[in-house]
Design goal:
Blueprint lengths: L1 H28 L2 H21 L3 H10 L5 H29 L3 H4 L6 H23 L3 H7 L2 H16 L4 H27 L10 H35 L2 H17 L1 H13 L6 H28 L1 H8 L7 H27 L3 H26 L1 H27 L13 H7 L3
Helix pairs in contact: 1-7, 1-8, 1-11, 1-12, 2-6, 2-10, 2-11, 3-4, 3-6, 3-10, 4-6, 6-9, 8-9, 10-11, 10-16, 10-17, 11-15, 12-13, 12-15, 13-15, 13-18, 15-16, 15-17, 16-17
Length: 429
């Protein structure tokens, strides 16, 4: 496990650094209003790709590891289902983005809507292809391919800002090209490595239906989780405008950076503990990992907050110092939800994604209601309060349920021990 942790953590740290550099470049070369529009563009792309995966990406790790079907057969079915859904989604996205008249769609300029369509399709298929790598525990390949979109975007931004003028249209185009490059290169890699074209006869209705049935539960959970995390963007845009969307989106960039370690660990534990032969190891390690993540996320947040007066102007500009007070309100939710990622990922590993649906559904309801109540009165601080309350509720509820399921104590997941990190690093894959 130690090798995988280090590899994924390095990749995600590098990816986060590149993402922050790209975001910094965009912020410094676009107006705050244009950056707000670009943030809405990104959220619509992420929302569209999340809604149309049908849970195939979430189910892949479980299906490849639980040994119900041959791994090669499950892989071919995942690859093929992803291709079919991506083609269908292109026409769906095109019809929606060009014909649905809502405030968040109308704010996107017509000349970048096609970029939004193609980006959504490519992100959708890329996420499904990434899940094949995770499901096979090919973390080295996963680390390489997942960084391609960020690297290509940063290179294009650097060249443009060095010799030309960066516009909103060019920024959206570069984002799209990063995902096109990723999908093409990763598809070729998987086809050659796993001889997918030669094994297309393995595409079977039974396996595909199993993937879709299991994935649908995870799909609902992931969609609700995404909405819970991003719905603020659309409500802020409705009440406060694109400038405040830009500020809040910058907070999300920082949050994603703080969540590097919990996201990395969840990516490893999910496929690892989907193997039924590792049940005893799961019961031993999940409490250890959760309480360690709780400690590390707390330290990461405190470190960034204490150095925020230096880093925020350096990365985003002095105008963005306002986000420091927003991040402080978000702090409880950021810290607790980071640890909660381990528990919610393990619900899926145990074949119980329904639990996450109920938990995240409750959290989304809290987020939406509290947002509509607080944002008109408190602005961005109200949005931060809503997210912090919602994130905290997810962790507390999931921890109580998980402890009842596993017959363990709540304190085992909260109070860290000195020996915890040694135990995690020594655990076998």
């Amino acid at each position: 496990m130690a090798k995988n942790i280090i590899l994924l953590l390095f990749r995600r740290s590098l990816g986060a650094l590149i993402s922050i550099l790209a975001t910094t470049t965009i912020i410094k070369n676009l107006s705050v209003e244009d950056y707000g529009i670009y943030s809405i563009f990104l959220n619509i792309v992420s929302l569209a790709s999340t809604f149309t995966t049908l849970g195939i990406d979430a189910a892949t790790g479980y299906v490849l590891q639980n040994k119900k079907y041959k791994r090669e057969d499950a892989l071919v079915n995942t690859f093929s289902l992803g291709a079919i859904i991506s083609v269908i989604s292109f026409f769906i996205f095109y019809g929606i983005f060009y014909n649905l008249h809502m405030s968040d769609f109308n704010i996107i300029p017509q000349d970048i809507k096609m970029f939004m369509v193609v980006s959504s399709v490519c992100m959708l298929y890329a996420n499904i292809l990434y899940s094949i790598l995770i499901g096979n525990m090919s973390f080295k390949s996963y680390s390489f391919f997942t960084i391609i979109p960020n690297v290509s975007l940063l290179i294009a931004l650097f060249i443009t800002t060095r010799f030309f003028h960066l516009s909103l249209k060019e920024t959206a185009f570069y984002f799209m090209m990063g995902y096109i490059l990723t999908v093409v290169s990763l598809s070729i890699y998987l086809i050659l490595k796993y001889k997918i074209l030669k094994n297309l006869y393995s595409f079977k209705k039974e396996i595909s239906l199993y993937i879709l049935r299991y994935g649908f539960m995870s799909y609902l959970s992931n969609v609700i989780t995404f909405l819970n995390y991003r719905v603020n963007i659309f409500i802020i845009g409705y009440y406060l405008g694109s400038k405040d969307v830009g500020f809040y989106s910058t907070c999300l960039v920082v949050i994603d950076f703080i969540w590097l370690i919990p996201s990395t660990m969840a990516s490893i534990t999910y496929p690892m503990f989907s193997d039924p032969n590792r049940r005893d190891l799961r019961k031993q390690l999940i409490p250890v990992i959760t309480r360690s993540i709780l400690l590390l996320t707390t330290l990461a947040f405190c470190g960034f907050y204490l150095l925020g007066d230096f880093f925020i102007p350096l990365l985003f500009g002095k105008e963005f110092l306002v986000i420091k007070s927003i991040l402080l309100i978000l702090a409880p939710g950021i810290i607790l939800f980071g640890a909660g990622k381990i528990i919610t990922a393990d619900f899926i590993s145990q074949g119980k994604p329904k639990v996450n649906i109920y938990l995240n559904g409750l959290a989304l309801l809290i987020t939406v209601v509290v947002n509509f109540v607080l944002i008109p009165h408190f602005g961005l601080k109200g949005a931060a309060m809503a997210s912090s309350i919602s994130f905290s509720c997810v962790f507390i509820s999931s921890l109580i349920i998980y402890c009842k399921m596993t017959h363990t104590r709540i304190l085992d997941y909260i109070v860290p021990n000195i020996s915890d990190f040694k135990m995690i690093l020594k655990a076998r894959n």
